[in-house]
Amino acid sequence: MTGGKLFVLLVYVVIALAYVFSRGTPYAGWIDWFIIAAIIVHALEVVFFFPLARRAKGSTLWHSTNVFIFGVFHPKAMIENAD
Predict the structure, then answer these.
(1) Could you tell me if 64 and 77 are in contact, meaning their C-beta atoms sit under 8 angstroms apart?
(2) Which pick of 21, 43, 61, 65 has the fewest CB atoms within 10 Å?
(3) Which residues contact 4 (CB under 8 A, 6 or more apart)?
(4) What is the rounded CA–CA span in Å between residue 63 and residue 61?
(5) Following DSSP, what letter does each residue of 22-69 receive, concatenated?
(6) How far apart are CA 16 and CA 47, in angstroms?
């Protein structure tokens, strides 16, 4: 796992903790919108990188899921494994 992917996982942990501990505060709405925006951006990345996921060796679903989770940090692995 690359440093970028570990960083993304750390960001997810921080966001999850902020989500849990911000309930009932003025910041709760901002965190909700940030999470929604992140989901939309990662979904767009899946659409954008789908052709590359299809060309890469292995499961297209696996690569698409990794792109959704890790964003732009996973396509480098797909490029190395592309046919």
Answers:
(1) no
(2) 61
(3) 70, 73
(4) 5
(5) TTTSTTHHHHHHHHHHHHHHHHHHHHHHHHHHHHBSS-HHHHHHHHHH
(6) 25
What's residue 83's pLDDT?
64
Instruction: Specify the pTM.
Output: 0.81
With tokens 């996973």, the residue in question is 74
* Predicted pLDDT at 69: 92
The first and second tokens of residue 55, run together, are 């060309």
Q: Scan for tokens 């954008």, then name that residue.
A: 48
Q: How far apart are CA 17 and CA 59, in angstroms?
A: 32
Q: Give the chain's radius of gyration (CA, Å).
A: 15
